[in-house]
Amino acid sequence: MAEDTRQDKRASFSALTEHGTNGMTRTSSKTGASKKLVIKNFKDRPKLSENYTEDTWLKLRDAVGAIQNSTSIKYNLEELYQAVENLCSYKVSPTLYKQLRQVCEDHVQAQIHQFREESLDNLSFLKRMNRCWQDHCRQTIMIRSIFLFLDRTYVLQNSLLPSIWDTGLELFRTHIVSDVAVQKRTVEGLLEQIELERNGETIDRSLLRSLLGMLSDLQVYRDSFEERFLTETNRLYAAEGQRLMQERDVPEYLHHVARRLEEENDRIMSYLDQSTQKPLINCIEKQLLGEHMTAILQKGLSNLLDENRVTELTLLYQLFSKGKGGLPTLLQFWRDYIKSFGGEIVCTPEKDKDMVQDLLDFKDKMDNVVQSCFARNEAFINTMKEAFETFINKRPNKPAELIAKYVDSKLRAGNKEATEEELERILDKIMIIFRFIHGKDVFEAFYKKDLAKRLLVGKSASVDAEKSMLSKLKHECGAAFTSKLEGMFKDMELSKDIMIQFKQYMQNQSEPSNIELTVNILTMGYWPTYIPMEVHLPPEMVRLQEIFKSFYLGKHSGRKLQWQSTLGHCVLKAEFKEGKKELQVSLFQTLVLLMFNEGEEFTLEEIKLATGIEDGELRRTLQSLACGKARVLTKIPKSKDVEDGDKFSCNDDFKHKLFRIKINQIQMKETVEEQASTTERVFQDRQYQIDAAIVRIMKMRKSLSHNLLMSEVYNQLKFPVKPADLKKRIESLIDRDYMERDKENSNQYNYVA
């Protein structure tokens, strides 16, 4: 019977090592077949003697002591495991558990003395603590492997009892780590090592990882270490932020903050507990960024944007997007910068010449910042649009006028700066700026004036580009905005058809002319207003005009033709000593040059009398012929300006490498009066639109209060208008009996049918 029992116990150990957790599975060593022997009742076993129990415990205690003292174990581990199983099988588990706990506790209590040594420096103390912890863990694992049967039967069945491993942790926490002096030195040592690393020194990270893992395993990490660590971190970075904001420029400071965040994230990955990540990063962001957001932006945003520091702007955005309230603060400063910089471009008259190009460059630059640095953030894109719209309308009318002139410079013949594709891109960019303008009617007025010049003088670089621009304006502002501009193009096309018919008509004339006449028929409502100038044309020209008039009115009765001499141009054949040339000149230049077929020298006054050209225009005409690059006339005395009494004669010695020479008219720079005249016409048109809007609203509503009327008029108008101007138009309509004030309430208006 005794032999069978021993055989069962050996089989029991063999099964446990194979299955790990099932202490009740047995394998027969005789047959090799597997079968389960379940102990249903402990009474089935003979009771062990007290001597056996005592001897077995002493054997186990010696083994535990050997493990704790790192000496060799006298007994076979299998034999020790079997002894524990025997004791547990005979109802001595509670006693065995208590005795084991007491032995372990006595050993742990004895370890505290090695930490009382005052002469140890902090690093040596940490190393000793780590060695003690590592030994304790190794010993606990070894002891648990011997007492595994106890751990997985008795302890598992009693939920209130901690496992052998947890008991080991509890004892180490209670008797070592919870000791006030030991805990204080441990935490101080850890903080000292971290501070050394933050200051650039190399430390033993594996030591910190092990000790902080110990605190975490012992569940004292947060209370004993983390709170103190975060407090010290807060203090460190608060002082560092204040100091570096004074010492460093913004780009350098931003790179420092990014480096600090990277370092702290690396510490979390290397040795700090993951639970520390959020409060630690929040602390750094608060002290290095949150406390200095306004100062950083005030000190450095303008410079970063001025110098287009893409890397630093990207970093700035990334850092501010992490901090609480960072992006709204950045957004406000971004808006203020655009308004300030753009306002300087728009509101500085000295920069008018380059205003539009500067605006385009500025818009490109800001677009690039949003795309490359601000992650295409919609809030920043919308804010940029609002800021552009605000500053570009700070100076009414002028930006619209200059944009029209800029478009003219790009669409005019002779502009060789861009290919068709590049020109299309430039026009697209101009349209973006154009969208921000409130007074689009001012743009229309100046654009129409310049378009007329390009079409009539044949200076348009490309019909396709012209029509592309027209299409863009139509898409942006609607058909009503471009109807007159489209009418101008239609006039030019119809004029070509009429001239084909006129040439056929001239061929049937009994007296054909030596002069080839080309006429553009312009519908007065489509084109800018031109002041007619009466000049003395040669009889042949007058005869041709009459023939054309007869031809045209014969086809279109009831119409009236008005000749615009200021827009005429001619090609003259001239003969000089060098040979024959063709001169491409204006009508005024033509009238002056034709005089020299009748005589050799004329004074300014004589030319004026013979041609009938207005004095200022005549002086500019003579200046272009006698003082320009192609001097077909000689002036006496020689000077740059034409003065009273100057005499002019034909320059027979005129030489030029080209056969056909274009002599440009001296363009009088658009005077303030002319600009004011165009603006005044826009203002007049606006008054008509305001009047029409008020009458339309009153006719529909019959009666309205002053404030409601003002509000509805503002909603209908597409251009800015001052309340005082609106009030004047209301008074004007009252005077003209379109509306009246209510007799009982002066703030109420009634429509007069």
From TrEMBL:
GO molecular function, one term: ubiquitin protein ligase binding
Cullin family profile domain mapped to chain residues: 398-626
Disordered: annotated span: 1-32
Positions with biased composition (Polar residues): 19-32
Gene3D superfamilies membership: Cullin Repeats (1.20.1310.10), Cullin, Chain C, Domain 2 (3.30.230.130), Winged helix-like DNA-binding domain superfamily/Winged helix DNA-binding domain (1.10.10.10)
Annotated Basic and acidic residues bias: 1-11
Pathway(s) this gene product operates in, as recorded in its UniProt entry: Protein modification; protein ubiquitination
GO biological process: cellular response to UV; developmental process; DNA repair; proteasome-mediated ubiquitin-dependent protein catabolic process; protein ubiquitination; regulation of protein metabolic process; rhythmic process; ribosome biogenesis
Family, as annotated: Belongs to the cullin family.
Annotated PANTHER family: CULLIN (PTHR11932)
Full protein name: Cullin-4A
The encoding gene: CUL4A
